Amino acid sequence: MARLHVMERSEAQAVMDGLHEALGKRLAVSSLAPCPVEFTAAYVAMCATQSCGKCTPCRVGLRTLQDLLDDVLENRADEHTLDLIERTARTIYLSADCAIGYEAGEMALTAIRGFRDDFEHHIKMHACGFTQSQLVPCVSGCPAGVDIPGYISLVEEGRYTDAVRLIRKDNPLPAVCGLICEHPCEMHCRRGMVDDPMNIRGLKRYAVEHMESDYTPRKAKATGKRVAVIGGGPAGLSAAYYLALMGHTPTIFEQRKQLGGMLRYGIPSYRLPREDLDREIQWLLDCGIEVNTETRIDADFGRLREDYDAVYMAIGAHSDHKLGLPGEDNPGVMSAVDMLRSIGDDEYPDFTDKRVCVIGGGNVAMDVARSAVRCHAKSVTIIYRRRIEDMTAQDEEIVGAQAEGCEILQLCAPVSIDVCDDGSVGGVRVQRQIIGGLKKGRPAPRNAEAEETLVPGEVVIVAIGQAIDSAPFDEQGVPTKWGRIVTDTDGAIPGFDGVFSGGDCQTGPSTVIRAINAGKVAAANIDRYLGYDHKITLDVELPPVQFRGKVSCARCEMTVRRSDERTKDFKNIEIGLSDQEAHQEASRCLRCDHFGFGAFRGGRIEQW
User: Fold this and answer.
1) Which end of the chain has the least Cβ crowding within 10 Å, N or C?
2) Looking at 423-543, which runs of residues are DSSP E strands?
3) Global confidence as pTM
């Protein structure tokens, strides 16, 4: 008889692996607004099944906590039950021997404290509250609230112009977002429970590129009201567009040569081709938007308010952050903001035969690193003090940079800029790091027991974040906090009647789609301030719903040009979906707007 046996995967284990995978998918694509009570109860029950039973807090506590949560769901609870849930969860959190009990107790404690009103709603009304959102998951996940199931159904039917019209009800920049949106909507697509989330961004791009004909949006009767928009980025453009549709006359004041803001001066053309950006901006301007470029508004702020009926400040975040390291003032050190701004005006740096060091781990760091490759750098090294998996850059950006030859040095904290005897930059001196516990949602690094080393390079690019140039407005009394402009919940600036603000200058650096939503919100509130209540309505008839999503079908991905080819120019690196891929992808939509359940079922917002 054999002493040992080769481990083989049993049929039972295969089934359990499949169940675990299905559970993981459901958790990964869970709605933005599930019932907190249901969600917490399910999580505690799952943790209870994983308990080893050696310590009382896990063996007894989790089962007790599970029963208490079931009492809430089964209408057997009262206010005393909620207090008991909190005490039980806290006891498990503080006394469990292992992470299973600790995490379950912390989760339940966070839920009962953070969603107390939802628990009370269950006790009083014997039903879920669902006060956070009544929309389908992808629509809830889109900051601009775009009717995603609606335009996907139009793409499937081949009505691409109507799809774009529907998108522009909530997002006036579909071409831009089809190319560079971070697509948070896809994170919550329920198709991920079946196989893979929908390629929502890819379908948006396909619709824009295959419009049957152009169209002119419907505008309200002219009101005679004039609105000044300070800043021609995505927030300013969006606000101006919707104000124009409402019958007002918006005028954009842009301090740079061209409109676009960070779309032009922060995103390289290999991701967002300039011809596509220019075409979309011109389409918006043709809707009745006046423009003054190379016009800086700071000291004239007060006079601007006198000349216009309302003002919207959307100046973005176009300044840079400093490292504060020795040698940073050397001419060989440049900021990512300055480099991308020059490229936006078609002024490309020449890095021929130079080694480039990029400090940072966000999308901007990837953009300047990949741009440096296209500017003929001999080598590009990205220096980051955390791990690669902790980078804030999108995964596809990190993979793309590595494919194009960029080396990523993780767990290396910059200490100083090395300066040669002749005054030129010699590289970046770094201190090795060791990763630690969570801090602000990410594992925090600390100095490792290792000597400093030198990363050689003749050019150093600092890409550690953007700052807001709000000082000129602050001097005129505009309230600011940490450089951000302070507003009321409707975007109005306290103490300045008729002046609103939004976008990166109000929230801090964020995504394009959030800036677009800020402009949309501003337009609605400015319209109300001016004494009107115009509606932006849905004027597209949607196809009848036909459910045929029962068959598993993987997601169609967009491909990119070969790395050895795309690094030679700044042309678009991404290849859109083919006709066959787009229609197959559109057919995968589960139409949660019609077939949803509970909080998922919300239909569509036909006007705002």
Assistant:
1) N
2) 425-439, 442-447, 453-456, 459-462, 466-467, 480-481, 484-485, 499-501
3) 0.85
